[in-house]
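Hey, quick one: can you model this chain's 3D structure?
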Amino acid sequence: MKILSSIIVFSALFFSCNSPAQKKSTEKEQKNFEITKSDAQWKAQLSSLAYNVLRHEATEPAFSSQLNDNHNKGTYVCAGCGTPVFKSKHKFDSGTGWPSFDREIEGNVAFSVDRKLGFSRTEEHCATCGGHLGHVFNDGPRETTGKRHCINGAALKFIPKDEKER
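Sure thing. Here's the predicted structure for all 166 residues.
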C-alpha cells in the first residue's frame, strides 16, 4: 500500500510540474514562415547574441544595444531576414534600456502569447522569418498608441534614411 501511495504522490508531482506556463506558445511554432532556415544556417548567419535572441527567444542585457540611443531617421529591420519592422519616427525613449516603439510596421510583425514566466505576455516576432523581437506592453505614450514595443537591439539592424529622402 505504501508503494502505491508513493507512486500516486510521485505521479501527481511529476505531472503538476508540467504546467502550461512552461510550454512555449504553439501559435508561432505552427506557422509556416516565408523564410525558413536550418539551425546551422541561422547560426552561421547571425552573431551569437542575435542567434540567441532571434532563434531562442533570449533577452539581451538592458542598456547594451547601441540602437537604444540611436536617434537617426530610418527603418529598423529584422536582423535575421531584413524585413522592415519599425520606423524611427515611432521610436521613443522608454527608459527601460531597450529600443522602444509605439507601433510596428503593420503586417511585418506577428504576435503570440508567451507564458514562460508563469503569466501571459504578448510576444512579437518577425512575420517573415519568425525571429523573436521582444514583447509589447500597454504602458507606452498615451498621446500616441499607448503601446510600448520593447525590442531587443540584437534582433534589429538599422537602415538610415537616404539624405535625398529627408
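One thing worth noting: The longest strand covers residues 109-114.
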